[in-house]
Amino acid sequence: MLDKMAVIGDKDSNFAFKAVGVDVFGAEKEDEAREIIKDLAANGYKVIFIAEDLAEKIDAFLEKYRAQTYPAIIPIPRGGKSSGYAMQGLKRDMDKAIGADILFKNGS
Q1: Three-class SS of residue 3?
Q2: Cis ω on the peptide bond leading into residue 75 (within 30° of 0)?
Q3: Contact criterion met (CB below 8 Å) for 91 and 104
Q4: What CATH number does the domain containing 9 carry?
Q5: Residue 39: its pLDDT value, please?
Q6: Where does the chain show beta strands of DSSP type E?
Q7: Strand partners, 8
Q8: Among 64, 67, 30, which residue's Cα sits nearest to residue 50?
Q9: How many domains does the chain have?
Q10: What are the average pLDDT values for consecutive 10-residue runs of the chain, which has 108 residues?
């Protein structure tokens, strides 16, 4: 049995996730995203994908979840456009887990 997974974003971005059985939640504003994340975490969701632009706007709020095992909150680009926020987070997490910069050795 799969653990609970969800995606938070706009209707168009969520469509593909819904097609594969992931629970989807629409949010366009930061306060909506914060409330949805609180509810999902309280209800045992293990993985929450969130539109990168929303995640970037609530970065300080997401900080408390980074210290926890679950839920894993994973920013994803919306509409194929990325600000680089998600990759910066991945780099930070990898550096912390491994203790070395294995993704961007050239400083990129």
Answers
A1: coil
A2: no
A3: yes
A4: 3.40.50.10580
A5: 97
A6: 5-9, 23-26, 47-51, 72-76
A7: 25, 50
A8: 30
A9: 1
A10: 81 81 92 96 93 92 89 82 70 66 58
pTM score of the predicted model: 0.78
Examine residue 101 and state whether it is found in any structural domain, yes or no: no
Asked whether residue 35 is domain-assigned, the answer is yes
Q: Which residue is associated with the tokens 């203790």?
A: 99
The reported pLDDT for the residue numbered 18 is 86
In a domain, 86, yes or no: no
CA–CA separation, 55 and 31 (whole Å): 11
Look at residues 51, 59, 54 and name the one whose alpha carbon lies nearest to residue 77: 51
For residues 57, 63, 69 and 75, what is the CA-based torsion angle, rounded to 10 degrees?
20
